[in-house]
Each structure stands twice: as C-alpha cells, then as structure tokens.
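EI: anyone free to look at a 319-residue chain?
SC: sure, send it
EI:
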Amino acid sequence: MTAEKTLGGIGERDLIGRIRRMYGYGWPDDDCFHIPAGGKYLLIKTDSISKPSHIPGNVSPERIGYFFAASNLSDIAAMGGTPRYFMAALTLPRNTHLSYLEGIERGISKCLRRYGARMAGGDMKEGRELNLAGIAIGEVEKDRMLRRKGMKPGEFLCVTGSLGKNAAGYYLWKRRGNADGADMLLDVEPRIREGRFISENGATAAMDLSDGVYSAIRQLSRINMCGFDINLSEVPVNAAALKASKLLGIPIEEMALNFGGEYELIFTVPAGRFGKMTALAKKRGIRIAKIGIVTKGGNRLIKGARAIRITDYGYEHFR
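SC: here you go
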C-alpha cells in the first residue's frame, strides 16, 4: 500500500499549482487580486503569520503586530498601490496576557497610521497557538498598476533598499542566541513610497521579496518565460549582513539572495530609462540599484569571472 503524500517536501509553489487545477480555472499570478473600480483597480491581499513559522524568540508584541501589518501592506506596494483598509483575524491561546494582545494591536495600529490605512474590523478566536491572518485593501490607478508579468530580455533587474539584514538577524538569533537578531528579523517596512515611485517612472513589472531574490526570480522566470543574470558585485548588501557573513562564515549570496523575509521590491525597467529613474530617485531620497539583467536563458549568478547556474529556491514553506 502506497503511503499518502504529506505537504512536507512538495513545496508551497507546487501546492498552489495543484489547488489551481482543482478549481478548473486560474487567477492572476500577482501580489494582489485586482478588481476594476472606475479609473482605478481595487487591490486585495491576504497573508498570515504564526508563532512557530515567523516569530522568533521573545520579540515584543508591538514588533509582531507591526511586522504582521507591514507584511500584508508590502503586496500593495509591489503593485504600485496605496493601502486604504486592513482587516485582521487573530487566533490566540486562552492564557494569553491581555497586555500581549494590546501590544500586538498597538503594533498594527502604528504601521497602519504610518502608511495611511485604517483598521476595518476582523475576527478573534481561541486556539492552541498564536496565528494572525490579515487582509489588506488598497487601490492603484489603472495605468500605474505593476504586475509580475511584463519583463523583457535586455531590461535591467533592480531592487529597492539593501538586502540581507533580515537574514543577518535570523542567523545571529539562531546561532548566537542574539535577542537583537530576532528583533532585526522582523524589522521590515512595506515599500509603499518606492512602489508608487517605480510605477510612475518606467518599471515594467515587480513583486516583493518576502521569500528572497532566488525565489522571486524563479517565479518571475516562469511567468515571463525568461531568465536572469544577477551580478553579485552589484547587489546592495546591508552592512549588518556583511558583518554577520564574516562573523558566522555564511556566504554573502546566501544572506542577501537566498533568504526570505526581506520585503524590498524587485522590479525591471528598460535600460534606456534606468539613468533617469535613478537620478530622480536620488533627488527624492529613494534607494534603488541595478542587480542584473533579463535574459532569454536560465537564471545565473555572475560571481567574478564565473557564471553559476542558480538552483536554490529561496525560502519556501513546506520544503
């Protein structure tokens, strides 16, 4: 008798593909679902976090709440949108301290206020462990919406901000028991301003880096029928990642490219528009960097004189 398959080892991406086939129809493979609303699209996204999978150590409930809201709003940012409303469904054990729940709510509220969104209700249930599920609702002009599809060979592959800080936090917490590392892992901001900026200045496609660069390019390669050459020397590595890489002996490409929880944006722009985009970004205090190019081949990491085929998946649940 053949043993029944479990989710472990199948991987989140393959599981989603199986579920799509069960329904018999597809839905957009984007960071948010979008619905026409006059001259705009309504953007809707749901995401969840749980104690064992996402929340390390003894981080404060305020940090947890802020991270929870920010990770949901990040998908609005990836489509060039503006967040408007947020809903939350919370599952907590009955012995949870009231002050802990209030701390989570303070963190959520702080993030929503910072990015101009309003809480619109939700649900609360008793359960064995902490689980937070959110729904983010935003909007974007129809001519400014960014999707994952739209990349073409020859375009520049770019990112916002710097990469590797969250990985540094994870490894410092996991290997050295560093409490500040646990806090660093959840220290994220949704790149709303950056998403708006790239959407109005020539970006052709985008997604967020919640599962890391390698995961993103694997998905984008499938969607756009293309490949990517990533030049390691051009990757903007966070100072904390450089320090942790040397301290722990972890390759910098592992820290900056093959780890989830980043929440920067990855996007493409035609080569002829990149110079103007970067000049304007600098004036506005927005950090963007070219890390590679879209190709017709597979995914490769350019490391010095070597071109190495990328076989890593980045972060993926159930692997």
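EI: Residues 156-309 form a domain with the Phosphoribosyl-aminoimidazole Synthetase; Chain A, domain 2 fold (CATH 3.90.650.10).
SC: 👍
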